[in-house]
TrEMBL record:
Pfam families: EH (PF12763). The keyword Translocase does not apply. This is EPS15 factor. Residues 1-83, 107-195 form the EH domain. GO terms for cellular component: clathrin coat of coated pit. GO terms for biological process: endocytosis; endosomal transport. Residues 27-62, 139-174 form the EF-hand domain. The keyword Ribosomal protein does not apply. It comes from the Eukaryota. One of its GO terms (molecular function) is cadherin binding. It comes from Ramphastos sulfuratus.
Length: 234
């Protein structure tokens, strides 16, 4: 065990210590909670060495876009990445400053026009304004919740122009039957957001009640029409 998570060398990791450590993976609280539930098989809030390795393996699965499930444990994945390099066990997260943004210029212009049509306030759109656009994609609510959580990079409950472009990019990927990743790949982080991120805690997801068919009288452009069938390549 790394002394970072087992300072007293007890061979066990408490939930509080593990939470601090696992947050360095950059995964959302929702995903980390699922990882903990699967790893803590007896539900005691403590991981032994084998259970902790299961948690690390699941972190690696999530970081590589695989489902967080026990069936993913046998799949080949690179080691998990953490934003702390003090321990030889850890690989530092690659800096993404020199990775080109996955959102192409012509697509960004399209997303910007949608963004402006939603009447942003001080360059920001609230969740209430973004939600109808996401729901118009007809994607499952759990997928849309992940899209929201990944695109709200600074966790302020609002999307700026670049964050909105990330959300739209992920929606179109999902419409093309590409899996929405469990954590935001380096290439998708907008250049304006490329700095060490803090993850103070996940914002609430789009509530499932949002899936109920509400009659929206304002004419919000449905995502399907906006796509105009221009397939996006990652």
């Amino acid at each position: 065990f790394s002394p970072q998570v087992d300072a007293a060398n007890t061979g066990r990791v408490l939930a509080s210590d593990a939470a601090v450590f696992l947050k360095r993976s950059g995964l959302t609280d929702l995903v980390l909670g699922k990882i903990w539930d699967l790893a803590d098989t007896d539900g005691k809030g403590i991981l032994n060495k084998q259970e902790f390795f299961v948690a690390l393996r699941l972190v690696a699965c999530a970081q590589n876009g695989l489902d967080v499930s026990l069936s993913s444990l046998n799949l080949p994945v690179p080691p998990p990445r953490f934003t702390d390099t003090n321990s030889p066990l850890l690989l530092s997260a690659t800096t993404s400053s020199d990775v080109p943004w996955a959102v192409k210029l012509e697509d960004k212009a399209k997303y910007d026009s949608i963004f402006d049509s939603l009447n942003p306030v001080n360059g920001l759109l609230s969740g209430d304004k973004v939600k109808p656009v996401l729901l118009n994609s007809k994607l499952p609510v759990d997928i849309l919740g992940r899209v929201w959580e990944l695109s709200d990079i600074d966790r302020d409950g609002m999307l700026d122009r670049d964050e909105f472009a990330v959300a739209m990019f992920l929606v179109y990927c999902a419409l093309e039957k590409e899996p929405v990743p469990m954590s935001l790949p380096a290439a998708l982080v907008p250049p304006s957001k490329r700095k060490p991120l803090s993850f103070p805690g996940a914002m609430p997801l789009i509530p499932s009640s949002a899936a109920t068919k509400e009659s929206h009288h304002q004419s919000l452009p449905p995502v399907g029409i906006l796509a105009a069938k221009t397939p996006l390549t990652q």
